[in-house]
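Lecture notes, unit on protein representations.

Consider one protein chain, 310 amino acids long.
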Amino acid sequence: MSPRLLITGATGFIGGRVAAAARATPGVRLRLMTHRTALGPSLTGPGVETVRGDLADPASLRGSCDGVDAVIHCASRLDADEATLRAVNDHGTRALVDEAVRAGAGRIVQLSTASVYGRGPFTALLPEAAPLAPVSAASRTRAAAERHVLEAQGAVLRPHLVYGTGDRWVVPGLVGLLRYLSAAPAGCPARHSMIDVESLGRALLGAALAPAAPSGVFHVNHPEPVGCSELLSTVLGALRPPGVDGEIGTDEAWARLEAAPRARHHFEMLAVDHWFDDDRAEKELDWIPGPAFAESFAAHASWYREFLAR
């Protein structure tokens, strides 16, 4: 029997990749939940139905999970006041989980984030080996959302840095930091877990379709962490952003950031390990990570150049 999946956030950066991967999988039937953004032509057609739903309005979710075999929950708010974040991320996820349980959906998969652990450093951290210590309202409410999924025996996927076509935060934020510094910091030994958005989309779909229903927390990143030097050299070599010339030592970088607390925070994150280990995703989610960072990033470089030029 063909599985039917409900995907929330299907018009988003990551949810759209899940929907595209599902559409490319023979036999999968899709139900895509939309709120305000219309679905593009790549997400419509035979085998795809849409339902209207607003996580901030639990009544609108009624019936959304009827007849589905799995729910892949990718929708969240990141850029709103704390009351809105709680209404959408925390209370909205609870309402969606309740609806999935009521409807008898076989499994629930949630896209979360490693930022629920806080600032680090984290070196080869295994799932749940450190307490959750989110520092932002967005991360706090996403951690709260995780609890609802885990209580329903669902699976929570925590990537760290997600990059690729459509990324408006990770690589653009790094380039903005380098432009502020006017140079690349040298001698930074930190390592970072990263994942291509296409690969993450496949992992989320794999969790919904794996022969045995996964449950618990999974760190989903490429198994090889990316060293800070490789990260900087790859991004600078591919994008060549104007205003970034040569290298500076970390002491000089700290000095230049003294009057810029937001940029200083980004550098604090860059300068220490954020490496999240876990080999269960490949085994339990029937997932192949794909190429390592330098090769994978090259496929997205032209999009980043166009985006940064705008």
